[in-house]
């Protein structure tokens, strides 16, 4: 069942989403060679509390930390680590906040020091995929209009779109219907309606779209060991157009 939100409810969702956005602004100040993702995780935990939110990820189906920290070939769901980030790494930080009974969710990819031209290009194209998808999140479009433009843009640059990890509706629960891949056909799929709130979160790989899961049962890596990037926003579909609730500026 897809839960449509009123304008007032979408307004109420902004608090959790903007706490997430503010955490990402603080992460951007911290990311540099030598920092650990455990240190970033600790900052985020404190910052969420300071801003009046609640962390949600730690303990969710047994996940051990307040953030997902995914470095280089880790696509998603990586554990924060005491291993220092190195010059040239890319790190994806995925955050979920609950506030006043509503959820916000956003992942962002960060360059650590000086990264390669290839890594920078992957990050840029992935961010472009996110915003191209967001442009299609309007009433009357189909879900395939979002996913197909993401797939087309990624593949036109020689990249692959992860299939096995899904975007989702979001509201009073972190995961609501619909759940969807970031691939598809324009004009096909679920009709988009005013009041839907979705995560749009393309995961784009340098090589194959296939992934493998570590023995910890969580950490998802590219099957070929190549880089993966991700950007994610929580987006409300409104009569005035897409409203990015987790916008950082």
From TrEMBL:
Domain Peptidase M24: 11-239
Cofactor(s) the record lists: Co(2+); Zn(2+); Mn(2+); Fe(2+)
Organism: Paenibacillus turicensis
One Pfam family here: Peptidase_M24
Quaternary structure annotation from Swiss-Prot or TrEMBL: Monomer.
Gene3D superfamilies linked: Creatinase/methionine aminopeptidase superfamily (3.90.230.10)
Keywords tagged on the record: Aminopeptidase, Hydrolase, Metal-binding, Protease
Binding site for a divalent metal cation 1: 94, 105, 232
Reactions catalysed, as given in the entry: Release of N-terminal amino acids, preferentially methionine, from peptides and arylamides
Claim: Cell division is one of the keywords in the record: no
Stated family: Belongs to the peptidase M24A family. Methionine aminopeptidase type 1 subfamily.
Protein name: Methionine aminopeptidase
EC number of this enzyme: 3.4.11.18
Residues reported to bind a divalent metal cation 2: 105, 168, 201, 232
Gene name of the encoded protein: map
């Amino acid at each position: 069942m897809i839960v449509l939100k009123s304008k007032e409810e979408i307004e109420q969702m902004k608090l959790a989403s903007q706490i997430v956005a503010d955490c990402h602004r603080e992460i951007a100040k911290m990311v540099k060679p030598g920092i650990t993702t455990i240190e970033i995780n600790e900052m985020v935990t404190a910052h969420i509390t300071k801003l009046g939110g609640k962390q949600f990820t730690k303990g969710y189906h047994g996940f051990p930390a307040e953030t997902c920290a995914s470095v280089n070939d880790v696509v998603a769901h990586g554990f924060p680590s005491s291993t220092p980030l190195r010059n040239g790494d890319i790190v994806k930080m995925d955050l979920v906040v609950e506030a006043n009974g509503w959820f916000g969710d956003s992942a962002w990819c960060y360059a650590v020091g000086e990264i390669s031209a290839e890594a920078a290009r992957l990050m840029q194209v992935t961010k472009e995929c996110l915003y191209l998808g967001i442009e299609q999140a309007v009433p009357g479009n189909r879900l395939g209009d979002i996913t197909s433009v993401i797939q087309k843009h990624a593949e036109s640059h020689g990249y692959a779109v992860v299939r096995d990890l899904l975007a989702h509706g979001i509201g009073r629960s972190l995961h609501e219907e619909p759940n969807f891949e970031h691939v598809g056909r324009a004009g096909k799929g679920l009709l988009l309606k005013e009041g839907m709130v979705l995560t749009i979160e393309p995961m784009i790989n340098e090589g194959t779209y296939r992934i493998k899961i570590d023995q910890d049962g969580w950490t998802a890596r590219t099957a070929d060991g190549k880089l993966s990037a991700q950007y994610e926003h929580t987006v409300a579909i409104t009569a005035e157009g897409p409203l990015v609730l987790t916008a950082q500026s």
